[in-house]
Amino acid sequence: MLGMSKLRVAVVGAGAAGLCAARHILARPGVYAPPVVYELTENVGGTWCYEERVGCYGNGHPIPSSMYKNLRTNLPKEVMMFPDFPFDDQLPSFLPHQEVQRYLERYCQSHQVTPHIKFSTVVEEVKPVTLETEGAGPKTAWEVTSSDKEGLQKMERFDSVFVCSGHYSDPCLPDIPGMEHFKGTVMHSHSYRFPEPYSGQSIVVLGAGASGLDISMELAGVNAQVILSHGKPPFTFPLPPGLRQAPPLTRVNEDGTFCFQDGSSTRAQVLLLCTGYNYTFSYLRGEALGLDVRKELVSPLYRFIMPPAFPSLFIIGVCKLILPFPHFHCQVQFALKVLEGSAPLPSRNQMEEEVREQLEAKRRLGVPSKHLLRIQNEQWGYCQDLARDGHFAPLPAVTRSLYEEVWRSRSVHPQNYRKANYRLASDTQWELSD
Ligand SMILES: Cc1cc2nc3c(=O)[nH]c(=O)nc-3n(C[C@H](O)[C@H](O)[C@H](O)COP(=O)(O)OP(=O)(O)OC[C@H]3O[C@@H](n4cnc5c(N)ncnc54)[C@H](O)[C@@H]3O)c2cc1C
Ligand SMILES: NC(=O)c1ccc[n+]([C@@H]2O[C@H](COP(=O)([O-])OP(=O)(O)OC[C@H]3O[C@@H](n4cnc5c(N)ncnc54)[C@H](OP(=O)(O)O)[C@@H]3O)[C@@H](O)[C@H]2O)c1
C-alpha cells in the first residue's frame, strides 16, 4: 500500500467498466475510501442507456451512446454477465438493450454505487502531480478537474484514477475521395437509431463489423435496397432479400455515384458509415503520461491497462473483440491489486520493453496498427494471467467454450443465431435450453 491512510480513487464514467471499478473498490473498505465516480450524463449504463436524440445535449456535450432502438445483444447473457452477478434467470439468452440497462442499474444498486456517482459532471482534465511525503519520498497523486451541470469547476486530488469513459462514441470517418460530389445523406452508425425513415431508400452501408452487418439486415427488413460494402472475404451465409454485398468503396464519381474496388458503381440516396470508432480521451494529455493516443491505438499500456510511466492510472476496457463485462471484472481486480502493492510490477523500462516486444511481434505477423488492440483469441490467457497475478478466481472454462460456440453460430447464420437459448450446466459445460 502507498501509505497508511485509505486510498482515494477517481473513476471516470459510470458505464459497465466504471460501475465494476466502483463495485470492487467499495468491496475493500479497509483499503479504499469510497470512490468518486464522475458521469457526464444523468444515468448509469453508458452505451446501454438508449438515447433517441442524436448529436449534442442542451449543454453542448456530445451524446455518447451509440445504441439503436432494436439492438439485441450479440453475446448470450450466460457469458456476457459479470461473473459474480448473473442476469435474471427468466430472460432469454440474447437480450434487448433495455434488459442490459436494467441489469447494470441492478448491479449499481446491489453494490450501493449510486451515492458515489456525481451525475451530469464531466471530467475535463486528469493530470499527475508529484507530492513530497514525509519520509517516503515523492509520490504521484492525480488532480481531477471536473465541471458540473451549472458549469462549476472543481479540482479534487486522488491516489489513482480509473479511466472508464468507453471508446464507442467518437465516430471514425474515413476519407473517401470525391465525397463532395455526393448530394445525399451521409451518416455514421453512432447516429443511427431505427430503420423506418429509410424504408424504400437505396443505401450503401460501409463496413461490415457488428454494426454494419446488423444494421444492413434491419434496413433490408423495411424494404430498403442495401449494398453492404466491405473489405472482408464475401460472406457466404444467406442474406435477406434487398441486401447485397460489394467490395470496399473507393471513391465518389463526379456524377455522385459510388465506385467500388472492383470498378462497379451504383447510385444511392444514403451513405451509412459503419466504420467503427476512434479512441479519444479528451481529458488526458498523452504526452505527459508517456502515452501515444492515436485514433486507432493507445500505447504503451502495460497489460493493456496502465502507462508504464504512471502505473496508478488504469485504462479499463481498451481492447477490442473481447467479452467486455468479464474482461472489466478481471482488469479492475488486477489493477486494484497493483495499487495495493500485492501484484508487484516490473520496472518502468521493463514494462515499456514488454509492450514494445508484444506489439512488434504482432506487427511482424502483419497485424495493422488499427488491429493491435483486438485480442479475441488472446483474451482467455490474458484474463487467466490477470487472475493468477491478482489472486482472484479465473473465468470458468465454460465462458470461453460458449463464447466460441456463439461466435461460430453467428458466422454461419447472423440472422438466426439469437434464437438459441443456453444454460450453464457447470463451470465447464453449457447446454442448449428451450
Ligand atoms: C452499438 C453497440 C452494441 C454493443 N453490443 C454489445 C453486446 O451485445 N454485448 C457486449 O457485451 N458488449 C456490447 N457492446 C460493447 C459495449 O461497449 C460494452 O458492453 C460496455 O458497455 C462498455 O462499457 P464502458 O463502461 O467501457 O463504456 P461506456 O458504456 O461507453 O461508458 C462510458 C461512460 O463514461 C462517461 N463519460 C465519457 N467521458 C466522460 C467524461 N469526460 N467525464 C465523465 N464521464 C464521461 C459516458 O457518459 C459513459 O456513461 C456494444 C457496443 C456498442 C457501441
Ligand atoms: N449487439 C450487437 O448486435 C452489436 C451491434 C453493433 C455493434 N456492436 C458492438 O459495437 C462495437 C463497435 O462495432 P462496430 O461494428 O461499430 O465497429 P467495428 O467493430 O470497429 O467495425 C468497423 C468495421 O468497419 C470497417 N471499416 C472501417 N473503415 C472502412 C472502410 N473505409 N471501408 C470498408 N470497411 C471499413 C472495419 O474494417 P477493418 O477491420 O479492416 O478496420 C470494421 O470491420 C463492437 O464491440 C461490436 O461488437 C454490437
Description:
There is one protein chain. The strands form seven sheets. The chain has a five-stranded parallel beta sheet with strand order 3-2-1-7-20, with helices on one face. The chain folds into two domains: 282 residues, FAD/NAD(P)-binding domain (3-Layer(bba) Sandwich); 95 residues, FAD/NAD(P)-binding domain, CATH 3.50.50. α1 packs across α6 and α6 runs parallel beside α8. The protein has nine helices and 22 strands. β1, α1 and β2 form a beta-alpha-beta unit. Helices cover 24% and strands 21% of the residues. By secondary structure, it is an alpha/beta fold.
Q: Strand content of the residues, in percent?
A: 15-25%
Which descriptor suits the 3D outline? globular
User: What would the CATH topology of the largest domain be?
Assistant: FAD/NAD(P)-binding domain
Q: Taking all residues together, what is the mean pLDDT?
A: 97
Q: Let me know the number of strands.
A: 22
Full CATH superfamily name of the largest domain: FAD/NAD(P)-binding domain
Give the count of helical stretches: 9
Sketch the major β-sheet: 5 strands, parallel
* Gyration radius over CA: 23 Å
Can you tell me the residue ranges where pLDDT is under 50 for at least 5 consecutive residues? none
CATH C-level category of the largest domain: Alpha Beta
Determine the N-to-C terminus distance: 50 Å
